[in-house]
Specification:
The complex is a heterotrimer of chains A (291), B (369) and C (298). Chain A has 291 residues and is mostly helical. Helix content of chain A is 73%, strand content 0%. In chain A, helix 6 crosses helix 9. By secondary structure, chain B is α+β, with helices and mostly antiparallel strands. In chain B, 23% of the residues lie in helices and 35% in strands. Chain B contains 8 helices and 21 strands. In chain B, the strands form 5 sheets. In chain B, strands 6-7-8-3-9-10 form a 6-stranded mixed sheet, with helices on both faces. Chain B has a 5-stranded antiparallel sheet with strand order 16-20-17-18-19, with no helix packed on it. Chain C has a single domain, classed as MetI-like (MetI-like fold). Helix content of chain C is 71%, strand content 0%. The two termini of chain C are 46 Å apart. Classes of the chains: A mainly alpha (291), B alpha+beta (369), C mainly alpha (298). Chains in contact: A-B, A-C, B-C. At the A-C interface, helix 2, helix 5, helix 6, helix 7 and helix 9 of A face helix 1, helix 3, helix 4, helix 5 and helix 6 of C.
Amino acid sequence: MADSYRQTTQAKLARMGIYAMLFLLALWFLAPLYVMLTTSFKSLDDIRSGNLLSLPQSFSLDAWKTAWDSACTGVECGGMKSYFGNSLKMMIPAVLISTLLGSLNGYVLSMWRFKGSDAFFMALLIGTFLPFQVVILPMAQVLGMLGLENSTGRLVLVHVIYGLQFTTLFFRNYYVTVPSDLVKAARIDGAGFFLFFFKILLPISIPTIMVCLIWQTTQIWNDFLFGVVFSSGDGQPITVALNNLVNTSTGVKQYNVDMAAAIIAALPTLLVYIVGGKFFVRGLTAGAVKG
Amino acid sequence: MGALSIRKVKKSYGDTHILKGIDLEIENGQFLILVGPSGCGKSTLLNMIAGLDDITSGEIYIADRLVNNLSPKDRDIAMVFQSYALYPNMTVRRNIAFGLEIRKVPKIEQDEIINRVAKTLQMEHLLDRKPAQLSGGQRQRVAMGRALARNPALFLFDEPLSNLDAKLRVEMRTEIKLLHQRLGTTIVYVTHDQIEAMTLGERIAVMKEGEVRQFGTPQQLYDLPSDLYVAGFIGSPSMNFIPCVLGEADGVGVVTLNNGKDQLISLGQISDIQRPFVGKPVILGIRPEQLTDPASAHSDHPNMQILTAMVTITEPTGPDTLVTVNINGVKTVARCHPRAAGVPGQSVQLSLDPTKALLFDPVSEKRLA
Amino acid sequence: MTVNSFSFSRFVDVTLPKVVIAPTALACLVGFYGFIGWTAWLSFTNSHMLPHYEWAGFVQYVELFGNDRWWQAMWNLGVFGSLFILICLALGLFTAVLLDQKIRAEGALRTIYLYPMALSFIVTGTAWKWILNPGLGIEKLLHDWGFTGATFDWIINPHYAIYTVVIAGVWQSTGFVMALFLAGLRGIDDSIIKAAQIDGASLPVIYTRIIIPSLRPVFLSVFMILAHIAVKSFDLVMALTGGGPGFATDLPSIFMYQHGFTRGQLGLGAASAMMMLFTAAAVVMPFLYSELMRDRRG
């Protein structure tokens, strides 16, 4: 019945309407990316003579070069390159440490529960809803007391501490679906706490590890609040540098450079999203292990 | 002293008492079944034997060694799980080798063991596959292989067949029994399936609500159940429980069964335990196959009792037909020859074997022996 | 028979998990709850450039509640938050329902709708700041298209600037909401829909009466997440408007940052942070409570 209904013109019109709306939505989501890209390839004159949607008169990479190594972010005029490096240096250890700790926590909270472990998990869960503003003042004091001057070191520490609740949650939710018989079997086989974790659990956690890596990478790379509060000068991450670049009020406003810099700042996470997006969805829905 | 000895073992979480004092003992080479409904504590008991759960009080000995404070790997046991619990990231070979590696068995010896086990279980061709590539029955086989490889003092089986389909379950059941006979292993086997319990077990412990209701051989449990629970749990279709009043005539117990009209049935010689119940309500327990058409009855018994009853429903099973009649207001099932089963609404004659009839105290639910 | 011996490996089994979790427990205890307490304490002191720990009562809260800029920021949060949440919910659900109609190229469309989620709010703010530029952005585009009298200067107009924050926020977050709703739609038992079809219900009726009501839990969690994003919203506004013009797009998070870190008003910053925590808690508590109840029932 449904098939014959679908044949009617009314239904065909409805389907065309659906596709039209989906197409318009796609345009709305793509338009800013299009504008950023075209603007970044235009010269300043080109920007003034054309409009948002016009294509570049002549294709120029000058704005990209400026953005990368000579644009001014406040007093410094070294482009985005060193800040890009800062973000990488901060992101890689922070992501790896928080993922490893999260997986160990998730393992304990799902398979080695003890008195109080559920309460601890609850306390951690509430942490996911904290507005970070409520912890940054004391954190600044503590970092000062610890004498940790290095911006990258500070940011790694902060991102690990405030990323743990998420990574723990991901792994815990995956590990509760692993049959408890598997741990029992391993204990009878004689595998201890770490042997089971590294030899059996981690190899089957790849989907969740992917989710965690993608989540933490985007969170940490895209962070601005911690960056602006806990880093300084040439140790700042790229988001802070981009904001400084765009909001620097000296000289002529170079919109093409702004856009190129914005794309540079967005590229790593966009890449992660495009390459890893499907792992993310798959990993989030990954269920129990059969075996 | 034997292979496994469980003494006054209790398990409680705060005020919740999961196990209320268990005493069990088996000899080397015996096959012990723990059977009972879910929540009776049988799996908890197995986990405690394995060392996966703590013991609140009491003692457990494996091969005459107190194991209360030993970790699972030091208890000389192996376990087969309901979900098989094969390591998904390892091949069958590595699954079997894992426990041996941890025990630092030399590589050459490991290979020998794996080959021997694979041969015993006829799974040489599966050794290089991953668990995900195996069928349910094959996984079951590998799980058993993993246990066999270690050659422990005690094998623990936790409902190993309940994830298999009916046909495969029967096949694997036979195979486990054969393995046990051939290798002479000592096994503790948990199941909720009374047929599995009866067919496999040499000793059966029927558990309910954290207590062992009866511990004995399959035949003891079947013929002389200690209480109404065990009587109803063992056997399928289950035993009929007919409420009646115990009478006495010349030292012989009698009851009145009514299906339209009263029919006096004599049971055997009345015992000292039964005598105080004369004139009081009791429950007559009689298994369906001991209530059958006269032609099928083992009529060599001199005191075979005959009663007539009206058929309310018939259920053919093939070899026999289950005939439901109403006696003393309760549905009662008789197992008859298909040709003697009658049709609903018709009266049939049923013969009852008084030597097999049991009496229970309706209050304490204990058998009156 | 051996004696009841102490076993090292059993001791390890009990102790090791706790040792492993200890760093996180410490981080959580100190980093979350300790620091909340610390912030709370600071909010009751007279701290300015440097923290002082002498009790000063409610002075900072009195000052905060007498501060017009704070109320402007809270009002802005109310306007931004409610519009942001409402539009994201509506548009996200609408997009999810459209995508659920056995659409060709669904994967590609989903990727397009979702990619803004991968961007930093700073990038989103930068892009929209340029698009909304009154001289060269959309306004110029409208002029080029022949609407020569058109003006579109919301980003510098104190009355409308907050709406530009809504636009950019919605653009960034809708795809994520869509993905959550789509997952919810896919989770609905097909046989319910078939039963409704056999009962003669039309597609719109099936959606409005059966499917959307059964998405209640998804609504709840999406609402939670969006509310959380709104309350802590900081980077988007910093990049898009910097809180201006004037204080037209100021938010509590910006208020907190500026007083706590750039203006040397630690106590006032702490008090505003505590107010942000209470705002977040007011939204989160009902959700956590219902989750807890569900856990208990399950």
